[in-house]
Amino acid sequence: MNIAKVIVDVPASSIDQTFDYLIPEKFSDIVVAGARVIVPFGPRKVMGFVVEKTTASEFSKLKPLHDVLDFQPVLTKELLEIGKWLARETISLQITTFQAMLPQVLKATYKKEIVRLSEARLSEELELLFAGRDIVPYEDFIASGIRYIRLSEAVQAKDVAIEYVVQSRITKKYQTIIRPAKEIHQLEEAVLDLSKQAKKQKQLLQFFLQHPQPVEKQALLKQLKTSDNTLRELQKKGLLESFQQEVYRDPYAHSDFPKTEALNLTGQQAEAIKPMKETIENERHAVFLLHGITGSGKTEIYLQVIQAVIEKGAEAIVLVPEISLTPQMVKRFKGRFGSNVAVMHSALSAGEKYDEWRRVQRKEVQVVVGARSAIFAPFENLGVIIIDEEHESTYKQEDQPRYHARDVAIQRGQHHKCPVILGSATPMLESYARASKGVYQLTTLDKRTNNKELPPVEIVDMRKELHAGNRTMFSRTLKAEIEACLQKGEQIVLLLNRRGYSTFVMCRDCGHVKECPHCDIALTFHKNSHVLKCHYCSYEEPMPIHCPECGSDTIRYFGTGTQRVEEALVKLIPEARVIRMDVDTTRRKGSHEKLLHQFATKQADILLGTQMIAKGLDFENVTLVGVLTADSMLHLPDFRSAEKTFQILTQVSGRAGRHELNGKVVVQTYTPDHYSIQLASTYDYTSFYQKEMLMRKTFHYPPYFFLALITVTHTNQVKAIQSTQQMVQMLSKVVHKQTILLGPTPSPIPRIKNRYRYQCMIKYRNEPHLQDELRKIMEHFSEQIRKDGLLISIDMQPYHLM
Q1: Is the pLDDT score of 369 beyond 90?
Q2: What is the pLDDT at residue 12?
Q3: Which of 173, 378, 449, 719 has its CA 20 to 30 A from that of 225?
Q4: Each residue of 660-710: pLDDT tens digit?
Q5: Rg of the chain, C-alpha, whole Å
Q6: Residue 444 φ then ψ, to 5°
Q7: Beta strands in 156-283 (DSSP E)
Q8: How far is CA 379 from CA 15, 43, 155, 386, 722, in A?
Q9: Residue 676: in which H helix or E strand, if any?
Q10: What is the pLDDT confidence band of residue 168, given thresholds at 50, 70 and 90?
């Protein structure tokens, strides 16, 4: 008796366990752990993941599996284990962690088809089933009674493919290929036999006499200016034949990546790479923290480490933060490793993501470059995992399962006995602390590869500018520097830590600020559409002419968004050509690459943008970097605000003077004496680390304490407070005396989408059973969650406390 243990796709804690199903005889050879199946669950049929195949069950009456979706597992044995581990660590459901590892296409609703890929002779039953067709509905196969093993063999031989049609949108892409069905001498005879009227048919056959190779159908028809009918006549006569060939949707098909060779390493680089290569050679797990200043050649180290892994026949995962980094990163990896690289990030279409993922699954590539979720690439022989800009908060997923890509990387590194390399000019305090203790191996690059100094940083006190009567957004220093750059034909990068046109709208008479009616947050003014928008619930309303409170017409917008800066810049320096790069201008697919290409080819003088331009960009003509609101992050209710400020200032400063030309950085601030701004201006990471660690120790924050954040939301404010209070009471009975419980307190944004939000913060040093206790609390409230609309979210290592 064959039995499948299945995790079903029903997101409820009471169902977060395996269910046993009988494997019918017809499926016995094809059901494997990691494949998706359809199972009866109560009155309906649901999708599930087979996590184990066994021969015994404690239950006597078992329902049979209804259908098998995958003939090759979509999750490897290792990823199944990672999923279970992740569910424990992040207090998530196993089904949620499995879904997080797969491309969107495999989560959608679907119907299946069987597509013939080759003219090769199939088994007799399958030949009868196809009966001259290229595509057969899966239902026809089921009705035929053919054994599943026959289909499985044809799939393995790549003669047919199982196709998912997702809401009538095909997720694989095929093209029809035409080729001669007879020998050359037979085609020559056929040309002579054709009547004089069959000119087009003759032309087609003569084409294949000169080019006997298979040709894509549409290209052929276009080239010979002929029609489908002509082709069909020749197919009927058995002279030509067609077959379906799958084409991957390659997001970089039209990009030309010049081939690059390994560079000679500097002494520091060679010293840093040596222990990394040793661990690869000896198949040993270790975590390296590569602390290298901007421009010190971290990427070249990554490339040469990957080369060593490829030569060993193993595979590599490279994570880069968010899409702004990928165009230049992709260029460097594709330039070095060509088509051996798959790319996975959020700007790809669902189909492109699916195709890139399948190239990995089919072992057609050895390198994956991608954002956070690429950490789950289904490789089975990993030789290295690299996380570039490891301090970036985008490596933390903010909804379930709330994992950090670094933790998954280390877990996978241990499994594959391979190194994990974390690279950054400004490592996270937690990472640097671990390296200082010897948990990670620290390697330092403190010189740029071209031995140039980092650009000098000038801090401008904006309070003095105000006193001097300068009310613009640009200090006199920055304006003079921009003008000097423009005269020399050099380029400028301007960073603004905001998005939108303006921060809020306020009446100058009574001080009334327009807030969202559903969220306790000020509305943001968007000039193009002349509306006020809420960035949390998408509520919008027209910009009022009069104050709704006092009727005054002195209602104005305050704050600085990128649109406003762009307008002010054009007024101040009309000759400057500006490219604005923010959430609004990069919404469309490919707009990142397009804007960066325009800037790289000098179609603009100034690149103005939000944080997305602070990292990873490398333009040889940029000599000036200006930071307009250096301190806007310092005043957020977040213990990491000083660290984030230091990181972004250091990162953006590294964009200037990266090549032959000397660079300069101007930082505008209203708090020039803050240690994060002062130390960023001298690139002094060590002093910042020591100062910030002292603050963290005093106030019991990471890395000295671990944090867990519980957020409770409900449409009824009293219910939200009471539930949070109850949780705090339950926790206080089970945690250690040294553990600190804070709350219930309202969240920094107390209401979003008409739901009240309350928080409880747990600060602890050693709570080995905390996850278990939190699960019990979730179970205690499960009835209220199910029936009363109570929502509880638990984040075991919060990065955003808003």
Answers
A1: yes
A2: 84
A3: 173
A4: 888 999 999 988 999 999 999 999 999 999 999 999 999 999 999 999 999
A5: 31
A6: -120, 135
A7: 160-166, 169-170, 173-180, 215-216, 240-247
A8: 30, 37, 21, 14, 47
A9: helix 675-681
A10: very low
Distance CA 749, CA 535 (A): 12
Residues 6+ apart with CB under 8 A from 589: 347, 349
> Is residue 498's pLDDT more than 70?
no
Check residue 499 and give its pLDDT. Answer: 44
Residue 342 forms beta bridges with which residues?
Answer: 368
Long-range CB pairs of 430-434, under 8 A, 24+ apart, other chains included: 430/702, 430/703, 431/289, 431/390, 431/391, 431/406, 432/289, 432/291, 432/689, 433/693, 433/703, 434/287, 434/289, 434/703
Residue 640 and residue 647 in contact, taking contact as beta carbons nearer than 8 Å? no
Contact 63, 4 (CB under 8 A): no
- Identify the residue whose tokens are 């979509």: 74
Name the residue type at position 575: E
Tell me how far the alpha carbon of residue 688 is from its chain's centroid.
Answer: 30
Give the three-class secondary structure for 667: strand
Residue with tokens 């294949």: 208
Among 210, 235, 238, 233, residue whose Cα is nearest residue 223? 210
The answer to whether 365 touches 344, Cβ cutoff 8 Å, is: no
User: Which backbone phi and psi does 600 adopt, to 5 degrees?
Assistant: -65, -35
Three-state DSSP state, 217 = helix
Q: Contact at 8 Å (CB) between 71 and 30?
A: yes
% of the chain with per-residue pLDDT over 90: 53
Q: Look at the block and give the residue holding tokens 């243990």.
A: 5
pLDDT above 50 for 294: yes
CA distance 539 to 782: 31
Q: What angle do CA 773, 779, 782 make, to 5 degrees?
A: 145
